């Protein structure tokens, strides 16, 4: 099966069970139905609720392993972590760079990577990183993404090689990131919760346009409430309600985004032991207005008005509200940030 072929396919190799990939294609080139059995028969198949999930699906190219091997060299590695490695390179028929995400051979990562394929096949937005395709001829899928040249927001904010950020650029990054999350929550047929919103999962292109990335822990929501048996995420950005109850909702993403917004305007890391009070300063509505001005990065503070930062503080406080019901929707946050940008 060649590059970009979509079909029902079976591959059998010596010592490996037959892999069966079922993609149900409708008569429309742009509208496809993916059922819970979309990866039925694949030994790394994820389990998706027992429900049929229907919606718009984007084309995902199926790569052969040999097509990606020239990129998967140590000299091309641009990142690594507990999940595996990320490589940058060029496909034989492309002039644009791609980022290839290769997991460790760890059974614990199987569902996470398969879930990422399913989730990203369902989204198409300028503020969400684009999944070009994947390779299924391995134990854990190899994922091929568009390459986003400026790295993560976490690196931009906190690396030793400080990148200059003015207020307008910060607001642009915040508003467009919020727009990407709002699209996932409320603008597609089956809402998607990201599940791990943090600066490391917001990538920036050459024009500092933000793109939401890393959907391994994301969830497609087919019912109103979504409980998880295992708490997953980064504690500094995690919704306290989710940590206590296991209930993950769209307002959990909103909480995490509030922490990101706080880091963005202060350029201080929420998990930095030297500033452990960063979040605490925003929980008390009576001290917020004073606290936010004191915490804002001097370069950013020099370009805005007190009223501007009071408005940002109000958004942050509302996102971080311990009462889930009082947190705004992501679409509202995006709209308010866009208004401040004008």
TrEMBL record:
Its main location: membrane. One of its GO terms (cellular component) is plasma membrane. One of its GO terms (biological process) is cell surface receptor signaling pathway. It is a single-pass membrane protein. ATP binds at residue 102. It comes from the Eukaryota. Belongs to the protein kinase superfamily. This is Protein kinase domain-containing protein. It comes from Digitaria exilis.
């Amino acid at each position: 099966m060649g590059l970009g072929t979509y079909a029902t396919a079976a591959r059998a190799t010596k010592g490996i069970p037959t892999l069966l990939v079922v993609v149900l294609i409708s008569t429309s080139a742009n509208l496809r139905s993916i059922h819970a059995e979309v990866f039925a028969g694949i030994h790394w198949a994820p389990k998706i609720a027992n429900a049929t999930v229907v919606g718009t699906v984007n084309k995902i190219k199926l790569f052969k392993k040999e097509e990606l091997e020239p990129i998967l060299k140590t000299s091309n590695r641009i990142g690594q972590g507990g999940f595996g490695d990320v490589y940058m390179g060029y496909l034989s028929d492309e002039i644009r760079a791609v980022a290839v995400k290769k997991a460790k051979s760890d059974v614990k990562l199987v569902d996470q990577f398969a879930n990422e394929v399913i989730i990203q096949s369902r989204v198409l937005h300028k503020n969400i990183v684009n999944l070009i395709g994947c390779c299924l001829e391995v134990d854990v899928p190899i994922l091929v993404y568009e390459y986003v040249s400026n790295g993560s927001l976490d690196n931009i904010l906190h690396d030793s090689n400080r990148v200059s950020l003015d207020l307008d650029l910060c607001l642009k990054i915040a508003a467009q990131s919020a727009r990407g999350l709002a699209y996932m929550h409320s603008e597609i047929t089956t809402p998607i919760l990201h599940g791990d919103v943090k600066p490391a999962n917001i990538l920036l292109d050459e024009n500092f346009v933000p793109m939401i990335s890393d959907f391994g822990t994301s969830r497609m929501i087919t019912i109103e409430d979504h409980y998880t048996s295992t708490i997953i995420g980064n504690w500094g950005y995690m919704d306290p309600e989710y940590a206590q109850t296991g209930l993950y909702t769209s307002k959990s993403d909103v909480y995490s985004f509030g922490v990101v917004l706080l880091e963005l305007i202060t350029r201080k890391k929420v998990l930095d032991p030297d500033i452990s009070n960063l979040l605490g300063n925003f929980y008390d509505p009576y001290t917020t207005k004073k606290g936010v001005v004191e915490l804002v990065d001097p370069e950013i503070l020099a370009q805005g008005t007190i009223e501007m930062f009071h408005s940002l503080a109000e958004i942050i406080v509302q996102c971080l509200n311990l009462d889930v019901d009082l947190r705004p929707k992501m679409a509202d946050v995006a709209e308010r940030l866009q208004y401040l940008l004008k």
